[in-house]
Fold each of these.
Amino acid sequence: MNAITGISPEKGAIPIHFDTDEEILAACIETIGDTPSDQARVVHIRNTLDVQNISVSKAYAGEIASNSKLKTLTDWKEMEIDPTGNIAKRFRTFNNADREDR
């Protein structure tokens, strides 16, 4: 916990463990200093071996709009947390028919 309090979780000698996604997200937000949580740059990656489709926070909207290699596949949505404290809707698989030209 001192690594989180010290705003440097990467320096912890023992990997930090949390029981729920909600606890993880709260701890992460604590380490970003004065950045408001609605401006947090959050990336949720299902599989680091396949990063073609990832979920990102709206804080990345400007970068996505200005980079022709990136596009949004859905409208922006809030991350939903279920009653157990975990992310309610995990990743959706997209195929070419699902993709909107954005």
Amino acid sequence: MNNWTKVQEKAHYPIHSQILLAAASGDVRALQRWWLQDIDLNVGDYDGRTPLHVSSAEGHLECVRFLVETCRVNPNPKDRCVTTYLSKKKQDMQAVVLASSI
């Protein structure tokens, strides 16, 4: 699949889906373009997951920093399971500590 095909396929997704895909794949440049167009980057999917949720879950620190420091998105959004970005990070750290102690 060439780049033009990928662009054409993305054009069929609603903008909020494109934003979440960019966050999940670590595409900070795409997030920057939408931010410069004054598009709200606090959008969520059907489960309430925001670009901050998905970029942090995938380990895209550059996206997380951009969203929090530059875009000033809500740093504590809640998804359907009432999981926040910060609580998820705390759970991940607890799992790492537990695994290392075994």
Amino acid sequence: MDYYSRAVGIYGIRPADFWRLTIDEYAVIQNGFYEHQSELQRTEWERIRWQTFVMLQPHVKPNSLKRPTDLIKFSWEKSQTPDIKKLIESGAMDIFPKTL
């Protein structure tokens, strides 16, 4: 599938607008579209997990499943706390004043 057919057919861009786009603008539209699709997939997976959690409740021991995340924890739910030591070593913290 070429850029034009993808832009008009999938992204919903009008043909006249497509020819006025820069490459950077097209990339932003494409990234936004795929981020939206990813969010829809995440929502669907979380809905299915919730449904499964509710359906299992009558069949498991009391308090064995307290939260839907007890069934499965998705990769996007894992802790994303930055490692401060690695940030300091990489120099990313140099933008902050040393005296606080």
